[in-house]
């Protein structure tokens, strides 16, 4: 073998190529590489490693790193959320126009002033899209809705089309006198309570709302579940004119609009524009925007529509010139930056659109994950000026972070790979608790979901970009309404996913960057209750991610940057001493005064770190002892399905092996072990591809 070189040794030892490609082949390739590029023998830095790795991928067969199929390797790249993947033909969620009173002056000092008179007559637009509101009275104090000449103050109620069953039968808010506590509230607290039902503001929310109402550009960095939506929705309600919200996903638009329509106040006029809407629905929205005083308060659009839609840009330019464009909000603003983990090219053009169409309209940018480098890029790209910056602490004490080293040795009881057996036991021990499992590929998500259903009895469904929009929406609805406990997904199950009672998030495979991992893990525990974020890690996962990144046809600079992000993700997984909370916070540029979180990560726990062992019963991520693990019935069910699955897998059976009873467990185990000889396939990929019995359809409604 050639003389050791630091670049090759780095890939073999740190990136896991010793177990996949092997030193002989890698050194042979490196020798050719040196001839091509004349690399200095002593050069070993991130740039040198990335350059050689990219050269190696270009000349190698795709199966060299990770031994995966092209479809599997492309999943991480192709699953990045885009409008095309998340579009669905559906009815517009448009709402009734109504008259508004802005309770705050333009300076945000709390002085009331009347808005221009807004006609309630919407028949000329589309009566079935903008129905008349019902009436409700309130005494002693003005609410946020102006009365007509013939009636007292009213609160509209107009359930949106496509709202949950029974919503149309709900009654309008009941007239009542205000309580002494409500009388004592200032206007912001009163609006927050009466419109959104919040008894108080979360940390920094009030400061952000006040800054937005003062007309300043605002940058908001707030962790997932911190309440970002309120910081622009409340100013939209209290301000004259329209607030445009740029968001990357159609499903997120639909959720936000429906939530606004179902508020306790009777609903806030909001709608969205989608390229999948019909002509009538789109015309209704544009006719409303063309009115002298549009009644819509919030309009959700995608970045592609705002950048490429000339009609929309013309309408917003007209609104801005007339003084009826209150502000523009860029949600998920990290997509603006090429240094971020979800870069979207059309987001990069939003700054140009702002300068050309509405240069004097205030802009608010929000994100849950952004490093200092990404923040600077966001401010520059969006051409924000005199910015009020709000950075809310990333520390979430209710999250417990753990990393479990994968063990590919088969469990003696179930004959499943050790880490899969460990995960199934963990999910079974959590009963019907709501959870998310992230996988690297579409096939992996389908197989793991089937394994959870068959082995644990827990309701689970897979979710990925290869499904139809309607099927993905069905999974989301089933999960939100409790018909499905666990969603097993790729990164397509990403931005905009909001469910308060998620008790655990498991990463079955390595993430490509800490930003994406933190955002995905942060979907747990939004209700503030304890929850766990567990990542299953093996160094041999790293070459799979490298191959995925290479398939994205990135430039050399992009590839090198993403390799740096992957290296930081790998270092996080292999860290055994530093507090995981501290490491995450410092990655995002936050100075954390504490060195330890106490017991909120595996590195700070006094007990030994859990590992997903395959040779015996696995210790749960919660440090559960054998006495607190699965009951006998659950263990027998797991073993039974494990025997069948292992036999079907290891024997290369074209059809599922018939179910065996526990009395025949020994025979099934012997058969599986016999089939395994000379055919060892560690890892979940082969298990998923060979298990026809594991590919049942996800649960359906009802």
TrEMBL record:
Q: Which organism is it from?
A: Auxenochlorella protothecoides
Membrane spanning residue stretches: none
Highest taxon of source: Eukaryota
Pfam families recorded: DEAD, Helicase_C, RecQ_Zn_bind
Location of the region described as Disordered in the Swiss-Prot/TrEMBL record: 79-116, 146-172, 610-631, 673-702
Q: Ranges of Low complexity compositional bias?
A: 619-628
Against InterPro entries, the record matches this protein to: DEAD/DEAH_box_helicase_dom, DNA/RNA_helicase_DEAH_CS, DNA_helicase_ATP-dep_RecQ, Helicase_ATP-bd, Helicase_C-like, P-loop_NTPase, RecQ_Zn-bd
The molecule here is called ATP-dependent DNA helicase
């Amino acid at each position: 073998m050639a003389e050791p070189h630091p670049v090759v040794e780095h890939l073999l030892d740190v990136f896991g190529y010793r177990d996949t490609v092997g030193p002989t082949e890698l050194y042979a390739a490196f020798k050719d590489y040196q001839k091509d590029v004349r690399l200095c023998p002593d050069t070993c830095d991130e740039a040198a490693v990335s350059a050689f790795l990219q050269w190696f991928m270009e000349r190698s067969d795709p199966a060299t790193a990770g031994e995966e199929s092209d479809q599997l390797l492309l999943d991480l790249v192709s699953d990045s959320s885009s409008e095309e993947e998340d579009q669905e033909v559906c009815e517009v969620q448009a709402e009734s126009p109504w008259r508004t009173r802005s309770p705050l002056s333009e300076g945000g000092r709390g002085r009331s002033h009347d808005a221009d008179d807004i006609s309630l007559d919407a028949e000329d637009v589309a009566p079935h899209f903008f129905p008349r509101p019902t009436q409700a009275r309130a005494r002693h104090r003005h609410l946020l809705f102006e009365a007509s000449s013939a009636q007292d103050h009213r609160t509209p109620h107009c359930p949106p089309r496509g709202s949950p069953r029974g919503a149309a039968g709900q009654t309008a808010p009941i007239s009542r006198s205000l309580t002494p506590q409500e009388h004592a509230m200032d206007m912001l607290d009163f609006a927050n309570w009466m419109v959104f039902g919040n008894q108080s503001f979360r940390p920094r929310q009030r400061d952000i709302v006040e800054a937005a109402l003062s007309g300043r550009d605002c940058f908001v960095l707030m962790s997932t579940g911190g309440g970002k939506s309120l910081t622009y929705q409340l100013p939209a309600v209290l301000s004259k004119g329209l607030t445009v919200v740029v968001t990357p996903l159609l499903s997120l638009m639909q959720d936000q609009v429906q939530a606004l329509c179902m508020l306790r106040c009777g609903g806030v006029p909001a709608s969205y524009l989608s390229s999948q809407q019909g002509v009538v629905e789109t015309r209704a929205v544009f006719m409303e925007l063309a009115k002298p005083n549009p009644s819509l308060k919030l309009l959700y659009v995608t970045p592609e529509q705002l950048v490429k839609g000339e009609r929309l840009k013309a309408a917003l330019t007209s609104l801005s010139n007339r003084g009826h464009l209150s502000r523009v909000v860029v949600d998920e603003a990290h997509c603006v930056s090429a240094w971020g983990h979800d870069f979207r090219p059309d987001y990069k053009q939003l700054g140009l659109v702002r300068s050309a169409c509405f240069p004097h309209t205030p802009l608010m940018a929000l994100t849950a994950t952004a490093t200092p480098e990404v923040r600077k890029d966001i401010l520059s790209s969006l051409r924000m000026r005199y910015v009020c910056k709000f950075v809310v602490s990333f520390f979430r004490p209710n999250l417990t972070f753990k990393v479990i080293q994968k063990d590919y040795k088969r469990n003696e009881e179930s004959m499943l790979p050790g880490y899969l057996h460990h995960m199934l036991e963990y999910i079974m021990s959590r009963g019907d608790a709501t959870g998310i499992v992230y996988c690297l590929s579409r096939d992996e998500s389908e197989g793991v979901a089937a394994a959870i259903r068959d082995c644990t009895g827990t309701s689970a469904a897979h979710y990925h970009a290869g499904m139809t929009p309607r099927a993905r929406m069905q999974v989301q609805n089933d999960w939100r309404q409790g018909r499905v406990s666990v969603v097993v997904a790729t990164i397509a199950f990403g931005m905009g996913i909001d469910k308060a009672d998620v008790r655990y998030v498991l990463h079955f495979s390595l993430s490509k960057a800490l930003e994406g991992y933190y955002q995905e893990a942060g979907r747990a525990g939004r209700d503030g209750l304890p929850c766990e974020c567990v990542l299953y890690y093996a160094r041999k996962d790293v070459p799979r991610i490298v191959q995925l990144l290479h398939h994205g046809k990135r430039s050399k600079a992009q590839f090198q940057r993403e390799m740096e992000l992957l290296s930081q993700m790998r270092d996080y997984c292999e860290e055994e001493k530093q507090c995981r909370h501290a490491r995450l916070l410092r990655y995002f540029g936050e100075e954390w005064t504490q060195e330890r979180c106490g017991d909120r990560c595996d590195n700070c726990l006094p007990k030994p770190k859990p590992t997903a062992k395959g040779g015996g019963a696995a210790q749960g991520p919660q440090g559960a002892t054998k006495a607190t693990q699965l009951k006998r019935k659950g263990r027998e069910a797991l073993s039974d399905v494990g025997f069948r699955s292992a036999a079907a897998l290891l024997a290369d059976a074209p059809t599922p092996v018939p179910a065996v009873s526990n009395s025949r467990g020994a025979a099934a185990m012997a058969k599986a072990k016999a089939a395994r000889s000379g055919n060892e396939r560690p890892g979940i990929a082969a298990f998923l591809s060979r298990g026809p019995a594991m590919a049942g359809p996800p649960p359906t409604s009802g």
